[in-house]
Amino acid sequence: MKYFLILTIAFVCLSEIPYDQKEWYFEQQRVNHFDPSDTRVYKQRYWSVENYFDKNSGSVLIWICGEYTCPGVRQSRLFPVEQAKLFNSLILVVEHRYYGKSMPFGQDSLKYENLKYLSVRQALDDLATFINYIKQNHLFGVQDSHPWIAIGGSYPGAMAAWFRFQYPHLVIGALASSAVVNSIVEFPKFDYQIYEATLKSGPQCVKDIQDLNKLAEQYLEGTQSVSFKTRFKSEKLSNNEFLFMFADVLVNLVQYGRRTYLCDLLATGQTLDAKMDLIANYVYNEVDIREYGSYYLQITDFDPETVGSSRQWMYQCCTEVGWWQTSPLQNSMRSDRIDINFYKQFCKDSFKTDIWPDGDRTNSYFGGDQLDVDNLILTNGVEDPWKHASVLKNQGNLIVREIQCDNCAHCVELYTPTVNDAADLKNARTQINYYFKQWIDEHYRKLSVQI
User: Fold this and answer.
1) Catalytic residue flag (residue 154)
2) Digit-coded pLDDT (tens) for 232-274
3) Contact 163, 126 (CB under 8 A)
4) Among 33, 96, 388, 410, which one carries the catalytic annotation?
5) Model confidence pTM above 0.90
6) How many Cβ atoms from other residues are within 10 Å of residue 316's Cβ?
7) Percentage of the chain modeled with pLDDT above 90
8) 277 counts as catalytic
9) Of the residues 89, 102, 109, 154, which is catalytic?
10) Catalytic one among 384, 390, 421, 443?
11) Active site residue 96
12) In what order do the strands lie in the sheet with 3-12?
């Protein structure tokens, strides 16, 4: 088997932990793991960080990328690099199939007939095949004796949990940050959490968000509909797609720990129209509208150097995982027009066929909110709306930790640690490291007994 080095980049993180990142390709990844007669392969991209790896007594951290072009290790998320230094670990970061440069069918990868190999189960088998490839070829000095731990956040957090569940013989444990392990097709609890989080900034912030959604409806119903959407670069979006985008922009700021920023920004607007201007300016300059419009999601052509992820991720949501955020009966933070029927039509319009996820089937494979496996840490930020698709209470062998702090949201503990981090965030990282050490020590203890 071949592997090629593409690029070497050196960084120094804010906490003064240097690391060198190298980009590689695994050229023999299987396109279809479920048909032994299908011998097609593709090139899967991955990265290595070898600075702290002890080939005699170290470990391997396999960092799972998800529904985006994988950047390898990001300077904004260096907690696992600190762990690598602590545990003498090799880091391997693996890009998800169909994203970035890991395209099974090259320029034809986004055609509907080729997307059928884009699934959680295929992606998990990619990881298993990748691990076996590294071990069998002793790449980077990896030996059979080295323990592996999976790390991921959000959808990749769920993948880390599911991988530990499906392949306990390949990883001794997993950190599943903000892991959406429960496939919920209709997900009104998302907005409930947005309401609870924004209420921390005061009732005016909640009212501003709700009133802005209503004002958007009014603009779309009137004669200024086209000019209103133009202010958001959203002319190609239908009215309901616009309302979907508008709500998502606001809740995403809360999701990623910017609740205070959002509420403070809205507070600077003296009138509701002034607040709308602030959001329009933010969307115009910061938001990729293409992920919200079926017009864009139908496009299958792409530039390999700038390929987006919207069509692929929407396919996964429409066929397998769901998580459609609908308006709850009370305290909604979006238009009530964004209901389950909107999403069904959205999937149909985007892929020109009737497709819809079966959440029960997905959960039957991976356990859903009944997941139970040892050596699995599930963490969630207290303000993260996605926590309601995770596990929030200890059950069975799971290690569950909700992190309590202001603006503690999605994948909060994976970010680069700073001296200003909240006390509970620091404590959560200390607990995670305690369990990692416990798992690694136990692994080597068992090996010494066998010898």
Assistant:
1) yes
2) 999 999 999 999 999 999 999 999 999 999 999 999 999 999 9
3) no
4) 410
5) yes
6) 23
7) 94
8) no
9) 154
10) 384
11) no
12) 3-12, 18-30, 41-49, 89-94, 59-64, 148-153, 173-177, 376-381, 399-403
